[in-house]
Specification:
Elements lengths: L5 E6 L11 H8 L6 E6 L16 E5 L5 H14 L2 E5 L1 H5 L1 H4 L5 E4 L6 H9 L14 E3 L26 E3 L2 E2 L10 H5 L4 E2 L2 H8 L5 E4 L8 H11 L5 E6 L7 H10 L1 E9 L3 H6 L10 H10 L3 E8 L8 H12 L3 E6 L7 H8 L14 H4 L10 H15 L2 H7 L14 H17 L18
Parallel strand pairs: 1-2, 1-3, 3-4, 4-5, 5-6, 7-10, 10-11, 11-12, 12-13, 13-14
Antiparallel strand pairs: 8-9
Helix pairs in contact: 7-8, 8-9, 12-15, 12-16, 15-17
């Protein structure tokens, strides 16, 4: 009796990989024919030994972002050497399909679920990538962004592990119209809003656990839709976290409806505390003079704030590092993430810096150590060395013991993230700052003293 066709999905890892359940794998699983044997492996949780392992599924599907590209290509090359067919997809492949196809039998450019069944069908028939034009025969792509109606629910049974953050990932919208120069979201999901019907989202949420992570790039990107969704969520009594733009957080009614629906924390892209910096970066919705008011309003509604900041934007001054940490401490931000400006392929930033001759390592994503080599461009107002040293200093200052103590908000009625989870979260970030950011220990998670899977 012939064995069923075996499709194996792989989430490649690198030192920045997270412990968040990969929604892409659960989504593709829902679009995979029932008569296919489907398996999944997270290289971050269960590292693949490229030298000693010998499994050879019929088809291997790998999702790639820029920071996992080198590892993804190595995994793909190994499986192909064993005789497996390999298809690569994801945001990095969409930006650089011609690079990725050198390591695969075919690649998917754009959102994969709309053409995934074509990929599986062609692989089963021995025609993977051969049904397109001769010039681009190995590239599967679609030219539009279909509406998000009637989608099958993700198969979460495929991505279960006690090591994942205990949140089920749900997506409600796609697309972003904001022209942020450094962002690659619109490259992959388009520049127009697309929304899932609220009843379909609620039906999916009813099958999920008590904690939800919204995978949307902005949970309040369209206020009417968001209000309808969050009001419908109130009876479900879920606790959720997500990402939000500052554009809608200045209005207390928007914050209030998120709190009623169970919001407990938001990751917010502040990017910079300087007006001229955010304005020139295309983040006109960010008003630094209102940041403290927004943080206070969210905190008063029981919503913790995880601030996201970027160092190295063209108008950054050498005191940006200290000013940013000072803001976080004074505003009592629950946590903060500091990123070095990174020219991701396909973005307007990468194209501009390359045209200006400022990229110092064009295919930086093919390197083995993204942290040590960064930044990958010449900043406008300081040297690369000064930028990197300031970045390290900001991390260490933010998660120093005095900062952790000063940022704790003793307010009444705050969420469990602001109260109980505040201390282990910040202690883990202290380890990250000292051991990985400052100490250069790329394997710090393997032997850290606090074993908390927080997606860091």
């Amino acid at each position: 009796m012939r064995s069923p066709f075996h499709v194996h999905l792989v989430a490649p890892s690198n030192e920045d990989s997270t412990y968040i359940k990969p929604l892409w794998a659960a989504t593709l699983a829902a679009h995979t024919p029932d008569d296919v044997e489907l398996t999944f492996r997270d290289d971050g949780l269960d590292p693949i030994d490229l030298e000693s392992e010998s499994d050879a599924p019929d088809l291997v599907g790998i999702s790639v972002n820029s920071k996992t590209a080198a590892r993804a290509y190595a995994i793909a090359d190994t499986y192909r050497a064993r005789g497996s067919l390999v298809v690569l997809g994801g945001i990095h492949v969409t930006a650089l399909p011609d690079e990725a196809v050198e390591h695969a039998d075919a690649v998917v450019s754009g959102e994969a679920e709309w053409i995934w069944q074509d990929v599986v069908r062609d692989a089963r028939c021995g025609k993977l990538g051969r049904t397109r034009s001769l010039l681009r025969r190995a590239i599967y792509e679609h030219d539009d962004y279909p509406p998000l109606f009637g989608l099958p629910q993700p198969r979460r049974d495929l991505v279960k592990s006690i090591r994942y953050v205990p949140f089920d990932v749900v997506q409600t919208t796609r697309g972003c119209p904001f022209p942020c120069e450094f962002c690659s979201v619109s490259t992959y999901n388009g520049t127009k809003f697309r929304f899932r019907p609220v009843p379909e989202v609620i039906a999916e949420l009813e099958t999920c656990g008590p904690r939800i992570l919204f995978g949307d790039d902005n949970v309040m990107i369209h206020t009417k839709y968001s209000h309808d969704l969050f009001e419908a969520m109130v009876p479900l009594r879920k606790h959720w976290v997500g990402q939000a733009s500052l554009a809608a957080l200045h209005r207390v009614e928007n914050v209030a409806v998120m709190a009623r629906s169970g919001c407990r924390a938001l990751l917010i892209g502040f990017e910079s505390v300087a007006d001229e910096v955010v304005r020139h970066a295309g983040k006109k919705q960010n008003k630094p003079q209102k940041y403290r008011e927004v943080v206070r309003c969210l905190s008063d509604h029981g919503i913790g704030v995880w601030g996201s900041f970027i160092f190295g934007l063209d108008d950054d001054s050498p005191d940006a590092f200290e000013r940013t940490v000072d803001f976080c401490i004074e505003a009592k931000v629950t946590m903060a993430i500091f990123a070095l400006l990174t020219p991701y392929p396909g973005t307007a930033l990468y194209k501009r810096l390359k045209a200006e001759g400022r990229i110092t390592k064009e295919a930086w994503w093919l390197g083995s150590d993204h942290d040590t080599d960064a930044p990958f461009y010449r900043p406008a107002t300081m040297s690369r060395e000064v930028l990197r040293a300031g970045w390290v200093r900001a991390w260490r200052s933010m998660y120093s013991t005095p900062s952790i103590l000063r940022r704790y908000d003793f307010g009444v009625g705050h969420s469990w993230i602001q109260n109980v989870a505040y201390w282990p979260l910040n202690l883990l970030m202290h380890e990250l700052a000292e051991k990985k950011i400052a100490g250069g220990d790329r394997a710090w998670r393997k032997h850290r003293t606090l074993d908390i899977p927080l997606g860091l």
